[in-house]
Design brief:
36% of the residues lie in helices and 16% in strands. It is of the alpha/beta class.
């Protein structure tokens, strides 16, 4: 009997740890099944955005990504395109570095960790020649070491954001932002901030249509309506 009880307890412990890991990684049933905005009908911007030009700028990464394997389009890239489509943004712009990040996930994390430790400002291969023409900037990025990737700081420090509104969005291992987005105005000269949005990268990759509903729900909190 004692041997049986020991085996039972061991099996129960394994199951408990397994369930704990699943809960910690996020339950996809928590995601929205419908959107406040009707995506089949015209969508209107908030009153304070009326007549303003909208830019969706993002940094994303292909290659091997956390929990989704090798991908040809980054998770943040997917969300950026969804935001641009729903808001009828005037332009979408990808922040790219002169030196690409390693395709291997572990190698990339080493580089990212070193850049964060040194507050590096990687050189960018792309530049917005007409930044002055945009009033509202949706700014997207993956969370790296609970922070914005260093190339995003390069982007923020490259322009004058006086009178512009930045709205951050990010992908990560969970459904929340890291908190570092609150520091964006310290690097983007003159920028004002609106409420940001965080979503699990794995969920975006595996369920892009449902992720789009979550994006729509967030946009409705900013004042977008049908």
């Amino acid at each position: 009997m004692k041997k049986f009880l020991l085996i039972f307890c061991a099996v129960f412990a394994v199951l408990a740890v397994g369930c704990g890991n699943i809960a910690a990684n996020g339950d996809e049933s928590d995601h929205a099944d419908s959107a406040v905005l009707d995506l089949t009908r015209p969508i209107h911007p908030p009153a304070n955005f009326a007549g303003k030009r909208v830019l969706v700028a993002f940094f994303s990464r292909t290659g091997e990504n956390f929990e989704v394997g090798v991908i040809e389009k980054g998770n943040t890239h997917i969300v950026a395109e969804q935001i641009a489509e729903i808001t009828h943004a005037d332009k979408i712009f990808e922040i790219q570095t002169v030196t690409p990040y390693p395709a291997d996930y572990q190698e990339m994390t080493k580089v990212a960790k070193e850049e964060k430790a040194s507050s590096a400002r990687p050189l960018l291969a792309t530049h917005m020649e007409d930044m002055a023409a945009y009033d509202v900037i949706f700014l997207g990025y993956p969370i790296w070491y609970q922070d914005l990737p260093m190339p995003v700081y390069t982007f923020l420090e490259s322009y004058d954001f006086t009178g512009k509104t930045i709205i951050p969005f990010c992908t990560g291992s969970g459904n929340a932002m890291s908190g570092m987005e609150e520091e964006i105005p310290h690097f983007a000269k003159g920028a004002q901030m609106e409420k940001g949005f965080g979503i699990q990268g794995k969920f975006v990759h595996n369920n892009p249509d449902q992720a789009k509903l979550e994006v729509a729900n967030w946009l409705s909190t900013l004042g977008y309506t049908n």
